[in-house]
Amino acid sequence: MEAFTWWSDEHKSLADEVGKFVDRVMPRAEEAFWEREFPRDILASIAEEGYFGAGVPKEYGGMGLGATGACIVIEEVSRMPGVGWIFGAAMLGGWHQVIDFGTEEQKKRFLPRMVKGELGAVAMTEPAVGTDIAGIETFARREGDKYIIHGKKRFVTGTGVADRYMLYARTSDDPEDIRRHRHLTGFIVEKGMPGFTIEKINEVMGFDNVPNGYLSLVDVPVPLANRIGEEGEGWRVMVLSLNYERALVSAQVLGTMRETLRAVVSYGQRRIQFDKPTIDIPTNQFKVADMMAKLKLARLSTYYAAQRLDSGQDAAVDCSICKVFNTDVAVEVGVEAIQVMGGDGTTKFYPLQRILNESKVAQIAGGTNEAIKLTIYRMGLKAMADDFKMPHRVRHSKLGVPITSADRPKKLSKIDEDSLLAVLAEDYRVNPGLYMSREDLKEAFDVSDTELDKVLLALESKQLVRLHRKGEAITLAKATYEGLKKANPPEHYRWFPPWVKDEDIF
Ligand SMILES: Cc1cc2nc3c(=O)[nH]c(=O)nc-3n(C[C@H](O)[C@H](O)[C@H](O)COP(=O)(O)OP(=O)(O)OC[C@H]3O[C@@H](n4cnc5c(N)ncnc54)[C@H](O)[C@@H]3O)c2cc1C
Predict the structure, then answer these.
(1) 1-118 fold
(2) Interval between CA 122 and ligand 1 midpoint (Å)
């Protein structure tokens, strides 16, 4: 694995060691895949090496290497069939939820178990609740020092093999709590608790020897001591945990992409058609070059997001971007790699078919890429608001064309219909197809929102201005043709480039 310059020496040696470990156990992982046998022995070896503790702080027995350490491990172990899913689920089954929201007692109780390789899982999704995860129906009712949980979960990776289930349940039906996302609570539900059973195991593409299934909870008593965070804090616990989940899924497909490239390049160097290796065919080289570029960019994006998580910065947008980017390019890389290998690529005798299946699932698990794009858009818009500010543009005095201006005009301290119409008319000369935002208008007038609205409404009533509203609030304004006519004579709006002949102008 290529190490990044900002990694510590411990990260670098971890990467080196896990890589060698995976090379050693790969034959057994492939055997387990063909036999459809859950790779319990491999997971036990991963635990023996201490890799389950990569992201766990040292005081709880871990390596203290943060999200970067956990990503390094999952990248390497995901080269093996299915193993990455279980490693990821074990982390998501409480790792940073306990670190970030757990009490000291919970940290001491759960984290060392995690380090020793106890498997975990995360249970958010339900039969009727997928992307719209705020609608969780599984209910937890407080009774003294325990909660009684009733409901179902599905698509839980690690169902059955996991001992610990980081599960989210509804604890309030109060509409105000729901509106404020204070209606969910996180719990660690453990194998063996009365009423906690498996309902079904799915047959899922890419999950040939790894269980994913449905859980049934019939009045399961869960001690208060297993509640993670406060009652009503579950949404926060879940949303923050999704950042880690997305970083881990991103790192997981790095391992599979690396295996894909290894297979396709080494195959193409040995396959002769038309008397030359198929890797020498330029179109195959272009495909491989694209694959390399996608892998490199995906790795940068992932470890940048992990670094932000580790340095305590807000990483929601970065984790979302790498989850979408990496899983999308992993599918593209998988499809193209099969094409480069031809018929052999489609067989199970090379790893590409299995990897493509795993990559496809990764576009859905951890939140679908469509849902995550909405997060990127909404949060990115806020996070990058300064970058998206419209530049102040004016009409150039000589050229007559719109040009960016560093100088803001002096704000007018008074507003009336004529001055507001004049500003909107000037904006028409610069941005004829656009409305002006409230912020744009407040750059021109040093007046209160109430004063501004009063004049805008007066102009609207005379049909001199067209307004756009969000709910009741006026957000955008534009002069109508009548408004432009009232503000200036027609010549004021005319402009022609010098090459247009006078005789062609009417
Ligand atoms: C193999 C596998 C493993 C999984 N592991 C786990 C696990 O361990 N724990 C767990 O809790 N869950 C797990 N999941 C569940 C996963 O998180 C959900 O499948 C995912 O969130 C989507 O929910 P859904 O399948 O119900 O699809 P739906 O929500 O029904 O969505 C169907 C389609 O509509 C689109 N869509 C939905 N809403 C919107 C919207 N607002 N805007 C745009 N498009 C939208 C989706 O993108 C999708 O294409 C796993 C899923 C799979 C397939």
Answers:
(1) Butyryl-Coa Dehydrogenase, subunit A; domain 1 (1.10.540)
(2) 14
Distance CA 299, CA 165 (A): 29
What percentage of the chain exceeds 70 in pLDDT? 100
Q: What is the pLDDT of residues 447-493, one digit of tens each?
A: 999 999 999 999 999 999 999 999 999 999 999 999 999 999 999 99
Are the C-beta atoms of residues 436 and 427 closer than 8 Å to each other? yes
Asked if residues 252 and 75 have their Cβ atoms less than 8 Å apart, the reply is yes
Residues 304-328: b if buried by 16+ CB within 10 A, e if exposed: bbbbbbbeeeebbbbbbbbbbbbbb
CATH number for the domain running over 124-232? 2.40.110.10
Determine whether the shortest distance from the Cβ of 371 to ligand 1 is under 6 A: yes
The domain made up of 239-383 has a fold known as: Butyryl-CoA Dehydrogenase, subunit A; domain 3 (1.20.140)
Question: Ligand 1: does its nearest atom lie under 6 Å from the Cβ of 122?
Answer: yes
pLDDT in tens, 337-380: 999 999 999 999 999 999 999 999 999 999 999 999 999 999 99
Domain ranges (residues) in the chain: 1-118, 124-232, 239-383, 393-504
Q: Name the class of domain 393-504.
A: mainly alpha
What tokens were used for 446? 């040093």
Cα 213 to ligand 1 centroid, rounded to whole Å:
14
CA of residue 121 to ligand 1 center, whole Å: 16
Is the pTM higher than 0.90? The answer reads yes
204 lines ligand 1 (CB under 6 A): yes
User: Is the CB of residue 252 below 6 angstroms from any atom belonging to ligand 1?
Assistant: no
Q: How far is the CA of 363 from the centre of ligand 1 (A)?
A: 9
Angle (CA) 260-244-307 rounded to 5° is 80
Distance 166 CA to ligand 1 centre (A): 18
